Structures are given as structure tokens and as C-alpha cells.
Amino acid sequence: MKKLSLLVGTLGGAMAGYLLHNKKLRDQLADAKDAEEAAKLLGKHLQKDGKKIAKQVQDFVASDDVQKNVGKAKRFAKKKVSEAKTEMDALVCKGSCKAKKAAKKGAAKAKKSVKKGAAKAKRSVKKAVRKKK
Question: Using CA atoms, how far apart are residues 97 and 104, in angstroms rounded to an integer?
Fold first, then answer.
């Protein structure tokens, strides 16, 4: 709910700023007969100004300075991705080495347990045979 109220507040502030800076729009809205006509006037002005802003943004993005910075940003991003990949490879290698050691230890413990179990079973069988005699 906070995001919605922030969005509405931001749009309201932007619209107020737009109305304060556009004298022609203010005069036309004051002369509007009803809300529908006012909405049409506002839409017409927003469309016209939106086209101007879009053209300015396109010119800005196409400028040499922005293109240089985009290139720098791409190089920076590639470098950081490469560093992260190297670190991840090191972590995976380290983890696999630890897993191998744990598996070997587990196998050795299992072998030892089986050996103890077999020896215990052998002793039990010998005891049982002695009791029967």
C-alpha cells in the first residue's frame, strides 16, 4: 500500500509541476467547459510534450559521451562477471575436494564398522557353539 501511495503522490507532484510550468495549458484548462474537455486538452499537451522529450532522449542516448560510458559500463560488467565466475569456480573446486575427503572418510568408517560387525558376529557364533557342546 505504501508503494501505491508513493506512486500517486509522485504522479500528483509531477502533474502539479507540469501545470505550474505550462502557462498555456493553465489558461486552456481554466477556459475548459467540463472535465472531459479538460482531459482532452491535458492529453493533447502531454502527447505533444512527450514527443519532444522522446526526441531529446534519443539525441542524448545517441551522443558520443553516452556511447563512451555505455562501452565503459559493458567492460566493467564483463570484468565483474569474469571475477565472479573465477571465484565461483574456486568455491566449487574447494567444495568438491571437501566432498571427496568426506566420502573417503565415510567409506573407511563403513569398512571399519563392517569389519567390527563381522568380528562380533564371529565371536557370537563361537560362543553359541561352545554353549551347545
Answer: 11
What residues does each domain of the chain span? 1-62, 71-133
Q: Which three cell numbers stand for residue 73?
A: 559500463
Instruction: Tell me the whole-structure pTM to 2 decimals.
Output: 0.39
Centre a 10 Å sphere on the Cβ of residue 26 and count the other Cβ atoms it contains. Answer: 12
> Helix and strand tally (H, E) in the chain?
4, 0
Predicted confidence (pLDDT) per residue in 38-90, tens digit: 888 888 888 888 888 888 888 888 888 888 888 888 899 999 999 999 989 88
**8 A C-beta contact, residue 50 and residue 70:** no
Whether 42 and 25 have beta carbons less than 8 Å apart is answered as yes
What does the pLDDT look like over 79-109, one tens digit per residue?
A: 999 999 998 988 888 888 888 888 888 888 8
Is residue 52 classed exposed, middle or buried when 0-12, 13-18 and 19+ CB atoms within 10 A define those classes? exposed
